[in-house]
């Protein structure tokens, strides 16, 4: 089970990296759009995150549902915004900035929302 958790965590982090990279690569571009990296990254991060919760629930670590709830809402908002703007020629700067902010916010929740002893 631990190997499965670690493989899912790797996928989860690669998903986050692709989403963040797809956003950051456009930082200096005058026009922004939803690229394939953002689409695949957001999808992978959310799906692997859900699977991680399943593995943690099945294991002996108890899961901080409030923390996971916040991450799920933020992750789904990111995914919906990305999928809804996938076919657009360009997206507003404000939407690009919001997606970047939400992605960094979910990392901050993952890292700083201190886990109760023995849980995520
Ligand atoms: C785009 C959205 C997301 C980003 C950027 C993100 C980012 C991260 C990062 C950086 C970590 C590693 C933190 C650490 O090990 O200290 C992490 C762990 C985790 N994330 Fe996410 N996450 C996202 C969405 C989600 C979603 C939607 C869920 C589930 C509903 C989720 C559940 C988890 C779990 C359970 C772990 C811990 C795994 C473990 O240590 O076993 N994440 N996330």
Total beta strand runs: 0
The helix fraction, in percent, is: over 70%
Low-pLDDT regions: none
Largest sheet: none
The structural domain count equals: 1
Average the pLDDT over all residues and give the rounded result.
93
| Tally of individual helices | 4
Output the structural class: mainly alpha
What would you note in describing this structure?
The chain is mainly alpha-helical and 120 residues long. It has one domain. Helix content is 72%, strand content 0%. Helix 1 packs antiparallel against helix 4 and helix 2 (36-58) runs antiparallel to helix 3. The radius of gyration is 15 Å and the shape is elongated. The model has no long low-confidence stretch (mean pLDDT 93). Bound molecules: protoporphyrin IX containing FE. Residues 5, 9, 12-13, 16, 19, 42, 45-46, 49-50, 52-53, 56, 68, 71-72, 75, 78, 103, 106-107, 110-111, 120 line the site of protoporphyrin IX containing FE.
Question: Brief overview, please?
Answer:
The protein has 4 helices and no strands.
Name a few traits of the molecule.
binds protoporphyrin IX containing FE; single chain; about 120 residues; about 0% strand
How is the secondary structure organized here?
Blueprint: H1 2-24, H2 36-58, H3 65-84, H4 93-112
């Amino acid at each position: 089970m631990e190997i499965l958790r670690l493989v899912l965590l790797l996928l989860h982090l690669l998903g986050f990296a692709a989403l963040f990279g797809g956003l950051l690569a456009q930082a200096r571009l005058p026009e922004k759009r939803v690229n394939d990296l953002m689409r695949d990254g957001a999808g992978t991060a959310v799906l692997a995150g859900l699977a991680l919760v399943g593995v943690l629930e099945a294991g002996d670590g108890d899961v901080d549902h409030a923390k996971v709830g916040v991450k799920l809402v933020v992750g789904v908002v990111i995914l919906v915004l990305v999928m809804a703007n996938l076919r657009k020629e360009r997206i507003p700067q404000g939407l690009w900035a919001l997606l970047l902010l939400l992605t960094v916010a979910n990392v901050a929740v993952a890292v700083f929302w201190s886990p109760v002893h023995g849980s995520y």
